[in-house]
Amino acid sequence: MRAFVVDGEAAVARLDGEERDVVATLIADVAVLLGAEHFSESNDGDTSAQGTGPPSDEDMIRESLAGIADSVETPHDPAVLALLPHASKDDDALAQEFRRLTEHDMRNLKVARLKRMWEALSAEESEWRVSLDEALPTAAALTDVRLVLASRLGVSTEDDAELLRMSIATAIDSEEAPTDEGAAQRLWWGMVYESLGWLQESLLDALSFPDQEPDSHHDGDDTKGGDDV
Predict the structure, then answer these.
(1) Which of these, 129, 150, 196, 214, has the minimum number of CB atoms within 10 Å of its CB?
(2) H helices of 130-180, where?
(3) Distance (Å, rounded) from C-alpha 141 to C-alpha 30?
(4) Residue 66 has what DSSP assignment?
(5) 54 or 166, which is more confident
């Protein structure tokens, strides 16, 4: 895995085939948590057959209004709640009303960002090219993926994150894989979590400091397999 660097009007990273498959699968799983159908080559977002073209302002307003439900339940899955948090911790009525008015659009926005990222990673190319216009939406999508991983890993504070990094470093230094399957899965997903954070940081750095040389290579994650999120 190599960091994002600016190349013309795009930021470019390199992931090998296995890394791309792991990240693309994870992205698709997060989209499913948000209520989307699982991404596949057969539903890759091609709307040409529909003959509708880009939606008009009226269409977007109509779609937004159609998504306002009479009521919306608070997500029971803590990972989904991390993606769609309460607008207010102190006023339940306000939080529920805000959720009712906005959750439909927020889910669609997040799924659309994830879909674009999945499509880029599903292409059989060694480079992951992100146009500079798409850099911030891509970084936001990576945040959503890492929020789900953090929820599954029980990482909710910086202390939790530091303990995770220490356990990864200890495992790498010892060169011994955990014998407990649960510990092995946690270690593997922790490496993915940290790798995506490093990649996201390199994307933001490429956007903010295009002439700066990045710490370009990252090989701390063993992407041989893992369970669905």
Answers:
(1) 129
(2) 135-153, 158-174
(3) 10
(4) H
(5) 166
